[in-house]
Each structure stands twice: as C-alpha cells, then as structure tokens.
Specification:
single chain, alpha+beta, 5-stranded mixed β-sheet, 8 strands, 23% helix, globular, disordered N terminus, disordered C terminus
Amino acid sequence: MEPADNTPPETGAFAVRAATAGDTDEIIRLAGLMYEAMGTDASAGDWREAARANLATRLGRDVAVFVADDPCDPGRLAATGAGTIVRRLPGPANPAALAGYIQWVSTDQRWQRRGLARQITAALLGWFAARDVRSIELHATEQGEPLYRSLGFGPGENPGLRIRLAPGPPGDVSGQGLRPRRGGCGSPLGEKALVDIGAVEPGPADRAVAGLRDPADRVGPVQVATGGRCAASRRCCAGG
C-alpha cells in the first residue's frame, strides 16, 4: 500500500487532520497514485466516480479519511489514508461484530519517507479504537510491510482466502462465470498470491443445481488468493 516509511518522522511541517468533503479530489488523486505504484492501471474514470460518490455519502459515518496538507502547495495533499467499518456476524472473539479495513494509504512522491504513512495509520487506529472496532485488516505491499508490522499488524491465526467472480448473466449458477485472473510470479500483490486451483469437482447436489449431467463436466477454473510462494506445479504470484 505504501513504500517503506521507517525513517525518523519530520513532523514539523505537517499536521494530520480529518478529511473534509473539500479534500475529495486530492484523496482520489493520491489513491490513484497508490494503485499505479502497485502496477494497477488507475486511469479509468469509473472507479474515481464511484469513490467520489462513496465519500460524499459515507465520510464521517462508516468511513474516515485522514490527510496531511502539502506545506508548499495550498489546496494540495501530501498524504492520505482511509478506514472503513463493516458489520459482520458476531463471534466469540468479536461479539460486537465490527471490523475495520485500512486502504488508500498513499504519500505524494515528493513527501515520502517523512513518517506521514505512520502518522496517518496511527490516526486511523485511534479512530477505530474510539468506536470499539478491535479487529482491523489491511493489505500490505512488500515495501510497506515493515511499517505495518512495526505498528502491530501481523498474520492472522487463519489464512485469508479470496475468490474473484467474473460478471455473468443473472441466475447463472453453473460456475462458468468464474474466470481466473491473469497473474504470474512477481505480480505486485503484496502478501497475497493468486493460486489456480483448476476445475472444481462438483458433488451430486451441485450437479443438480448447475444442471450438469455428464460425469466429465466440471465447474471450472477458479483462482483463490492465499499466502504462499511460487510453485512450479501451480500458477501463482506472490509479492513476498
């Protein structure tokens, strides 16, 4: 998410503050820089418009954004970071069922390595704590991992898995809408990896739902995001 930020912070020129609606364009600009630095094309306008709409309705509610102003360019931001609160189902370790997620931690290139990512992440952690959100997650790039570990982040007790479903026609439960994402060793995916687990062997109930009649039919191909290193027998990519 953010390049390594382990140098002693030079805080004199910066003050981290809560973002306002007037910061929206700059927040999205910095988020775009973060995606580009991770190797993701952020030039499309659709995600920016969706981000603008989300900030307009959610900022100050279930979303917080902290920013630092550029000391040399009024109206421009030097750094930003966002946090969201989601409600899950209760469990023994989280009866309040609240969870936090940190994203868009990004520093303008001219102001990197001045402790801004650390300050903004600390501000977000304080915001979560004030709302009794105790379980907080983020995705770190290899460069940003040391910073987040120094703040107390680490691997969870259970591995995190992810699947991305491609758009398909309404009511399509055949599994044919599942498409593997392209990837390869060295892709900038931080601590996660995309692992091609191939065709899925459906059981009898799955066959009935999916309308599969031929025993050779498969619900195919799926990719799951998981931690790990590149293996010759499976196509995967990991940033670690």
